Amino acid sequence: MKLLTxxxxxxxVKGVTKGYPLLIKATEVKMNEVEFNPQFVSRMIPKxxxxxLVQAAEELGQRQDLPGELVSDYEKNEDFLKKVHRVLLEVExxxxxxxxPESGREFPISRGIPNMLLNEDEx
Amino acid sequence: MSSQEDGAAEQPGPDTTVGPSISxxxxxxxxxxxxxxxxxxxxxxxxxxxxxxxxxxxxxEKIGVDARxxxxxxxxxxxxxxxxxxxxxxxxxxxxxxxVVEEYDDYQFKQSKEETLMELxxxxxxxxxxxxxxxxxxxxxxxxxxxxxxxxxxxKVKPESTDAAVADTEQQEPPEAAASxxxxxxxxxxxxxxxxxxxxxxxxxPEAKVMKFRVTCNRAGDKHSFSSNEAARDFGGAVQxxxxxxxxxxxxxxxxxxxxxNVEVVIGIxxxxxxxxxxxxxxxxxxxxxSTLCYxxxxxxxPQASDVILDPMCGTGAIPLEGAIEFNSSFYVAGDNYDMAxxxxxxxxxxxxxxxxxxxxxxxxxxxxxxWDLCNLPIRTSSVDIIITDMPFGKRMGSRKKNWDLYPSCLxxxxxxxxxxxxxxxxxxQDKKCFSKAISRMGGLxxxxxxxxxxxxxxxxxxxLLKRTGAVFGQTPEDVYESRGTVNAQGDEKDDKELxxxxxxx
Lengths: 123, 506
Prior knowledge:
The complex is a heterodimer of chains A (123) and B (506). Chain A is an alpha+beta fold and 123 residues long. Chain A has a single domain (3-114), classed as N-terminal domain of TfIIb, CATH 2.20.25. Helix content of chain A is 29%, strand content 20%. A four-stranded antiparallel sheet of chain A has the order 1-2-3-4. In chain A, strand 3 (106-110) and strand 4 form a beta hairpin. The longest helix of chain A has 13 residues, at 78-90. The two termini of chain A are 24 Å apart. With 506 residues, chain B is an alpha/beta fold. Chain B has two domains: 38-145 and 211-276, VC0802-like (2-Layer Sandwich), CATH 3.30.2130; 291-486, Rossmann fold (3-Layer(aba) Sandwich), CATH 3.40.50. Chain B is 35% helix and 19% strand. Chain B is built from 13 helices and 15 strands. Chain B has an eight-stranded mixed sheet with strand order 2-3-1-4-8-7-5-6. Chain B has a seven-stranded mixed sheet with strand order 11-10-9-12-13-15-14, sandwiched between helices. The chains are: A alpha+beta (123), B alpha/beta (506). Chain A binds chain B through residues 1-2, 4-5, 8-12, 20, 32-35, 37, 39-41, 43-44, 47, 49, 89-90, 107, 111-118, 123, and chain B through 305-306, 308, 328-331, 333, 337, 342-343, 346, 353, 361-366, 368-373, 376-380, 383-384, 505. Chain A: Belongs to the TRM112 family. Chain A: This is Multifunctional methyltransferase subunit TRM112-like protein. Chain A: It is found in: Cytoplasm, Perinuclear region; Nucleus, Nucleoplasm. Chain A: It holds the Pfam family Trm112p. Chain A: Keywords: Cytoplasm, Methyltransferase, Nucleus, Transferase.
């Protein structure tokens, strides 16, 4: 699971109102090299929940020097874009789980695949 | 298309362009022997029916020529010069490629079967084979250079020997072409050198190896007096006689195509050994979609840089994987509720990544896989740009009754996650009735833009291109109605019951 995907995932357990962002508990993380595309990154940034991304990176010990708030004029800052690229696409959680911040319900991650299926009583 | 000739060719342009009027191509074989001649031929391509225009667009974009769409559905034709031949292998919307030997727009078949078949036999020795054979040879060299797509599909390594075999047989051609055979020998040795950097081009001594071939005939139309088998047999017999090749249905070097569609007759030589349509998938599922069809669907929605593209019923991941490779400035999330499906998807992704790593490229693809329930997606509202998927048809997967409940639920959930105003969906389904009904109730959320009618495994299906309206989810009349679950001015009691069943699970 890449952090870009994590940025979109939310808990949908019945009754939960604040199911985002999911907390990450990782037992295995891998780095996977992805070709850098600056246009992709700069256009993706406005679509992200920035603080959730930073928090997730922090949880994995991959934050490095990513700022807590977006700087203006990042589109031309290739250094910055490369850091974001790395965190969005190259860090992969292979084993672990995602935890709903409100209910505590854990969704396992195995082989890089988060299992977000709910049980009958949770729907 | 004009041809480009280097060196001192004695005859100018017209003879070397290929079209219905061409007979002798001997002038194209005269060359100074060093650079090799560039000839222009017509390439035919089979594409998933319904996506002919998409394929023509791709040809225009990647090769820069206008393609002609045949009346025989699922085929397009375009010209190409041999120096650009490698470009045909960049096309992602074509299943099979062939080089045209000759085309007849309005072939006058004889009345009786015997006469017709006799004429086909005679045709074999009169056709302008040379250019097509040159292209076939050149194509073999190109494929070896690429270390072609999936390994182990039977490519044999003997270009010189086949060159010699062809050169030898060309000496048996009728007198007027006899002059060309000496040049053709010179040419076959020079062309590989000009085009290929491999060592095989430099080697000389060919052994006398007999070429193996087969003829495949596709016939459509109700006024023919013969069957495709008969045509293939008789035409094939004459080809064998003419070239002194050996017929072999399974281990052939050359595949000759005889395509007859009413009065349109096309003779060609295949350039693809196996259909390209399964190129990305190594782990199949029961309903894996052809990559060419996936590509057609993706082109339809025109992915932009940074688009978030979801396939909520991904199966083996064929669609998002094709997207991650071909439209790689977007990001794909593939999801399914079935564990075997998500596992196969991940296996397919890993397979491609490993192949890329082996070639020395950055292996990672912009794609992720999640296991989820598509009627209850764990995705933030309005965060997805495009939804693209192959919906269960109710035949090999799921059931018609299930579709009745499934389609409205998933269309609503897809509308929730899709960005209002700019979002799009491209949905493939065979259950057109159920889909149309489900969509007609969602006018507040989805608008139909365009439908492409396709053929998937013999079934007539539709690819629906939808636009997400600007309406915010939860505030359209349908949403308000469903949350109340009572008043419906137009529906009948049965409809009310269905709708309340749908909402109860949400």
